[in-house]
Structure formats: structure tokens, C-alpha cells
């Protein structure tokens, strides 16, 4: 998957400003950045949910604007707003999605059942999506994104609002998928998760990419750079690295909210 000078403006405001991304097959790619950096706007453009103001997106070797239907058939998406139908049960939502992707009735039923069990959403089969908690909705949206066995999975903040147990299941599953050559592209501001999972990262701030590359290399690069010439510095946590490249670390001064602390 690649983007070429991707731009999105909302009126006068430029949310995504000339982003060039390159994501290889089977990579576990973490797209990071502070709140409002442009992550969700970018992922919407990568998945055909939002048209770019300028620039191009290629997914699975195809131009997204020209062949969006073919691309959409082969990708899975958990968007920011989850795109679920509130008046359906989880099983109905999966049936709808499976049939929409052209799976047979039999495949849809079987895969839907397995996905609901894996996500532990099969306990209350009559429950409607509108009655789901946020974490449950997220898991259902992920199940829908997987039912047609996509070649690339796009996840916008997949761990947000998901409990520890489900997070573990989700992490294990995503690692298995990438081991089978499925590409995972996720946005997150939870750096510990990204640090443990991702092979590659990019960091965006104020609509611009500031870093892109293999996580190990980035970390070694900065560790060496930090050294005093006597063999390089210590490995740097992704959080330290993130704060450094974003440059957003506020001085831990005394005058932070003096009326509060
Ligand atoms: N539909 C929209 N109209 C106007 N501004 C928007 C719209 N969507 C996003 N933005 C703005 O674009 C910026 C990036 O938003 P977003 O991509 O959601 O950030 P992130 O996902 O990194 O937190 C924010 O300043 C946000 O307010
Ligand atoms: Mg977002």
C-alpha cells in the first residue's frame, strides 16, 4: 500500500498535508500521532471512506480512486465510527456483512459463529448492537472486518475501550494474521501496544509525517545518536522517542495549572 502526496483539507484547514506512506505486505504497521494529528482522516482516505483533496492512494497494486470496489472487496476496515447497524444483533450484523462480501450462506454462518465466539460476543445472542458497550461494538466491528478474510486490515484505534482480556485475544490474533502474510495497518496513541506489536511505524503530527520506518532501526538510530561516542546510548522506549520527535514535551515546570496542583 502506498500514498503519494496525500492531502485533505476541511475548508481552510489542512488536516493531512502531503503524506507519503509505504506499507509492505505482511507488515504490522503502526500509525501514530497525538490527538488531532490526522490519523483517522488518513485511514479514511486509505480505505475509500473519504476522498482526498489531492494525491493518490494505491492499495494491493490498484489505484483506489479508479478501482475502489475491487479494493474494498479485499480489505477489512474498523473505522473510527465503527459502521454498525444498531438495530441488529451481532449475529445478524455478521450475516449481513458476510453476504454483502459474497460469501455463501453456509460460510457466513460458520465464520460468523466462530468470530462471535472468539470475540466472546456469543453469550447474549438476542442483544442488539445499540445495547452493546463501546468495547463490544469495537469487537463486533473487527469481526465484520475479518469475515471475508481480507488481505489488508485497517484498524482505527482498535484497542481503545477494549478490556485487557479482549486486548490480549486481539493482539494474538493480529500477530497470527501478519504471520500469514496479511497486512495490518493500525492507528493508535497507546504506545506500549504499538511497541510490542508493530514491525513498522510512522508518526504524524499536524498532518505531516515526521518519521517512518522499521521500528527496530528507528530505535537503534536514536539510541546510537543519543550516545556519547562510547558505543551508543541505551535503547529508547517508544514513548520517549515519540515525545522527542513530536517535540511536544512541555517543561515539567511549577506553573502547570497552579490552581490545581
Ligand atoms: N469532517 C471534518 N471537518 C472539519 N475538520 C475535521 C474533520 N475531520 C477531522 N477534522 C480535523 O482534522 C484534524 C485531524 O483529525 P483526525 O484525523 O480525526 O485526527 P486523529 O485521528 O489523529 O486524532 C483535527 O484537527 C480535526 O478536528
Ligand atoms: Mg482518530
Question: How would you describe what is shown here?
Answer:
By secondary structure, the protein is α/β, with parallel strands linked by helices. The chain has a single domain (2-246), classed as 3-Layer(aba) Sandwich (Rossmann fold). Helices cover 37% and strands 22% of the residues. It contains nine helices and ten strands. Strand 7, helix 6 (164-179) and strand 8 (183-188) form a beta-alpha-beta unit. The longest helix has 16 residues, at 164-179. Residues 227-231 have low confidence and may be disordered. The chain binds adenosine-5'-diphosphate (ADP) and magnesium ion (MG). Adenosine-5'-diphosphate binds next to strand 2 and helix 1.
List the helices and strands and how they pair.
Layout: E1 2-10, E2 13-19, E3 28-32, H1 39-46, E4 54-59, E5 62-63, H2 68-74, E6 75-78, H3 90-100, H4 105-118, H5 134-146, E7 152-156, H6 164-179, E8 183-188, H7 191-197, E9 200-205, E10 208-214, H8 215-226, H9 238-246
Helix pairs in contact: 3-4
The structure holds adenosine-5'-diphosphate (ADP) and magnesium ion (MG).
Residues 10, 13, 15, 33, 35-41 line the site of adenosine-5'-diphosphate.
CATH C-level class is: Alpha Beta
Overall CATH architecture: 3-Layer(aba) Sandwich
CATH topology: Rossmann fold
Instruction: Give the bound compounds.
Output: adenosine-5'-diphosphate, magnesium ion
- How many domains make up the coordinates? 1
Low-confidence stretches: 227-231
Question: Which class of secondary structure composition applies to the elements?
Answer: alpha/beta
Order of helices and strands: EEEHEEHEHHHEHEHEEHH
Number of helices: 9
Strand order of the largest sheet: 6-7-8-3-9-10
Helical content band: 25-40%
For the secondary structure, the number of strands is: 10
Biggest sheet details: 6 strands, mixed
- Give the percentage of residues in beta strands: 15-25%
Query: What is the distance, rounded to the nearest whole angstrom, between the alpha carbons of the first and last residues?
Result: 47 Å
CATH H-level homologous superfamily name: P-loop containing nucleotide triphosphate hydrolases
Per the principal axes of the C-alpha atoms, what is the gross shape? globular
Amino acid at each position: 500500500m502506498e500514498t503519494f502526496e496525500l492531502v485533505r483539507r476541511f475548508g481552510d484547514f489542512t488536516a493531512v498535508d502531503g503524506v507519503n506512506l509505504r506499507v509492505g505486505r505482511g507488515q504490522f504497521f503502526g500509525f501514530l500521532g497525538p490527538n488531532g494529528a490526522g490519523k483517522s482522516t488518513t485511514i479514511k482516505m486509505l480505505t475509500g471512506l473519504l476522498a482526498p483533496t489531492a494525491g493518490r492512494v494505491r492499495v494491493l497494486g490498484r489505484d483506489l480512486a479508479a478501482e475502489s470496489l475491487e479494493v474494498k472487496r479485499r480489505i477489512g476496515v474498523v473505522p473510527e465510527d465503527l459502521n454498525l447497524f444498531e438495530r441488529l444483533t451481532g449475529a445478524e450484523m455478521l450475516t449481513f456483512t458476510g453476504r454483502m462480501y459474497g460469501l455463501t450462506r453456509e460460510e457466513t454462518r460458520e465464520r460468523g459463529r466462530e468470530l462471535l465466539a472468539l470475540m466472546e460476543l456469543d453469550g447474549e445472542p438476542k442483544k442488539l448492537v445499540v445495547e452493546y458497550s463501546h468495547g463490544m461494538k469495537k469487537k463486533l466491528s473487527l469481526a465484520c472486518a475479518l469475515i471475508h478474510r481480507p488481505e489488508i486490515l485497517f484498524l482505527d484505534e482498535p484497542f481503545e475501550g477494549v478490556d485487557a482480556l479482549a486486548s490480549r485475544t486481539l493482539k494474538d490474533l493480529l500477530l497470527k494474521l501478519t504471520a500469514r502474510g496479511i497486512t495490518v495497518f493500525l492507528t493508535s496513541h497507546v504506545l506500549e501496544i504499538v511497541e510490542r506489536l508493530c514491525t513498522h511505524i510512522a508518526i504524524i503530527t499536524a498532518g505531516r509525517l515526521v518519521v517512518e520506518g522499521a521500528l527496530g532501526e528507528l530505535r537503534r538510530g536514536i539510541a546510537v545518536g543519543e550516545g556519547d561516542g562510547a558505543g551508543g546510548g541505551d535503547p529508547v522506549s517508544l514513548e520517549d522517542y515519540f515525545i522527542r520527535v513530536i517535540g511536544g514535551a512541555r517543561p515539567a515546570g511549577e506553573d502547570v495549572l497552579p490552581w490545581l496542583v
